[in-house]
TrEMBL record:
The lineage of its organism: Bacteria, Pseudomonadati, Pseudomonadota, Alphaproteobacteria, Sphingomonadales. A motif (TonB C-terminal box) lies at residues 971-988. This is Outer membrane receptor protein involved in Fe transport. PANTHER family: PTHR47234, SECRETIN_TONB SHORT N-TERMINAL DOMAIN-CONTAINING PROTEIN (PTHR47234:SF3). Belongs to the TonB-dependent receptor family. Residues 1-35 form the signal peptide.
Amino acid sequence: MSGSDYTLSARSWRRAGVASLAALATCMLAAPAMAQDTAPLPEPQATPPSDQADDRAQDIVVTGSRIQSSGFNAPTPTTVIGEEQIAANAQPNVFTTIAQLPSLQGSSGTQTNTFSTSSGQQGLSSFSLRGVGAIRTLTLLDGQRVVGANVTGVPDVSLFPQLLIKRVDVVNGGASASYGSDAVGGVVNFITDTRFEGIKGNVLGSITDYADDETVLVQLAAGKSFLNDTVHFVVSTEYGNEAGVGPGPYGIGLAGGRDWFTQRTLVNRNITNDGNPQLVLRDFAQSIGFTKYGLITAGPLQGIAFDQAGNPFQFQYGSNGVPVRDAAGTVRGCDFGFCQGGDVSGNVDSGRSIKSSIERLNTYTRLGWDFAPGNELYFSANIGQVKTQNQPINGQNRPNLTIQCANPFVPQIVRNQCAAAGITSFRYGTSNAALGSTQVHTDRRQYRFVVGAKGKTPVFGTDWNYDIYFEHGTNYSDIDVSNIHLSRRFNQAIDAISLDGTIVCRDPVARANGCQPLNIIGGNPSEAAIRYVQPENGPFQRTRQTQDVVSLNFSGQPFESWAGPVSFAFGGEARHEYYRVYGDPYGGGVVDAPANANYPVDPVLLPGGANWYAGNYYPGTGAYSVVEGFVEVDLPIINSDALGRANLNGAVRVTDYSTSGTVWAWKIGGTWELPIDGLRIRGVTSRDIRAPNLSELFAAPVTTTLPNFFDPFNNRNVLALQYTTGNPALTPELARNTTAGIALSNPSWFRGFSASFDWYKIKIDDVIGSLGAGDIVNYCFGNILPQTCNAFNLNNPNGPNFINVQSFNFASIETEGFDIEASYQWRNPLGLPGQFVLRGLATHVAKYVSDTGLPGTIPGDSAGQNFGATPNWKWLVTQSYSNDQFSLLLQERWFTSGKINNNYVECEPGSCPVSTPVNQTISPQDNFVPGAFYMDVGGTYNLTEEVTAYFKVDNLFDEDPALSPFFSNPALYDALGRTYRVGVRFKF
């Protein structure tokens, strides 16, 4: 941050602090005038779910609006998941329950991000509404922001106090004008029970049908009021441990004996004009570039593989493949790098963790004091820790190595064949099974504190609500990677020679710095060699993020129009976001090692970093400040028996970012309750924003040397340095969000029935994306993307020249579809005591178009691509019956079939057009991906009035995920299989 930015930030915080303290003092002084109001401060209530609607008018605060209103007056559709529904779903993490909603597409969790080493998002529970990403979904706790658990700024829901959650409001539409940045897809707001009295707990255990993912969850909460019900204290704690589902062995097998994995691979034939599809789908595929313990992949000895003991044998390629033994490594009968069948024991994809393990420990405390009736001062603390672990893949593939025939680890019989063939080296590939498989461990610790005041006070004869708070949050995220090698040490260690009868590393500089020769011919390297190429302390990342928020919100009804009370809300917020990350991409085990004049200790390593096989985390730091204010108005315009009731709702928010300046967000909408009983229409259009996050703005620079980079301005090759870094010049993404719908709520002629239909359309411009070094220069040269012209300097032919590879605002996203929700309550069905409830929710994604707008690219519509997160249709339906003694629940989750890629051109073999890079050809059956249907069943039984036993079976029919050329798609499919859960809840 520059000096001027820091000055602006400090001024902003001083202004915000003075304003908040003045407002707090005003409210406390005004409150005693309300002594005649003896009712306790009510919790904000959101739009009641359609299965709980009744005839009573309710004063509520609808999430997505700052206006207090009654009934369904807010124009933005909201789905509510109540405490009872959360309990009935019996999940060890409330995140899983909410993520099942059809409008949530692409959320992360313990079954996603398990295939990567460097993302830093393993085990991160974060929501994505409308498929636009977690960074464009605002997640709140009691209407307040939560410190990010990742440099992208998204919080970890598994750190929330889950036993105290009363309900979750999911706003399916833009809400930036009311709540600020990131609410492009919508808002997910967790409402806690701040007035809980008594003691309650929950103990849950679960296991899959494959005897894994053993889970234990223990939760306990207590609440008590003191001093004539003016002091309220609640506390909760919970411990959860989900063992996860680990990797399978090399080959085809998966963990627990799961049999759905076939190493399905989408093979590119690289033939575009022979009338046949360019892309073909193959099961039991194997790479011709490596095996578990090593394979000679080209030249006269091609096809010789090695077992664990280092003994050579002839590899069985499958597909009746025959090695041509040419320099290109061709295998006749196989499709461009892959054979089908044969020896598949070296396949590595089976080594991916299906679900990360996760261990959670959360505590939450809240103390509130009603300093006057209806007015409260409060303090809350949320401290939690989440640890996860996963294995991204089996081994550490190195498919294009060169081994000298004279290498003393090469068996004599192979050296003899080298001599006979007249070669001195051969190309070699191995998955390095002997080095073990990489493990990724994450540890996130959150410390969040809030102090605030809320309540009601009279101003000029009318009551005004206020909500003022200060939040400070700190999140520490540690990532440690083990069993991973330093690539340059590996290269030195495998190049072995015999010196005075001893096997040593060839390079004398490497030898002098501890190089130990590594035998990768087979699977028996020495322990000293393993420790040299894989130090005990692998790559790591240590991140500290802080968030400070001061927020002031006021709402009231100062006067009435011809149609009823006019509601106003206004307020402001100041926020400061900061992060600092340490890492060791250098391999020296020293944080910020390049700052050490004696670094690198090992000259084999690159001083610029990127030495690890994966997991090259770099140090960096950054911060920005935000000051914003908003006004919202709800104006009744019709109130008559003949025309019904209608209102207009509008809001505007101005936001000033220390990095990018001022931006405006707004919304205008309304509802019309028609004179037809229970029927109303609603709609809203808004301009929403998503500010660039800390990672996009301030990612630490990574340096790469480009020795022959082409300079199109001077038509020459130059030496250039590529700096991969953040871009402080990024501006907020701008979205236009429109919804319109109709709802029927509990009409007198059909009591207990409610239904709604809402159409939506979101267009996001200036989407932040990244470009390569060549594209950055060429798009400037062609005046295609002028903002890239400030990212490089190539004017010195002898160097130093540089290109900053960073993100820019240049892409767009457009999505459109509709939501359907319906429910029916039937009291005393068929004369039985109790209640039957049927509820269904569905989302149809008609299109989801991403467009870079760059030459050589075309827009991609991923709606219905079942290897993304946006199937055409996604449904959730529940049926439940409950009485005073027991309850039963059936739940169905399903989504429709789709494609691998909508841009592929489908054609039958023999009749395909010429395939192009942007429209590759494929057969219809190869491009087809089936949907999935999952049924869950559960129930409860009241052992006493205070103790309830329950059970749940998820994926009752043990539905396997669809076969995939990308292993599996956990964003849609359940890869765990049938899971059994049992538990006990109690409340005293």
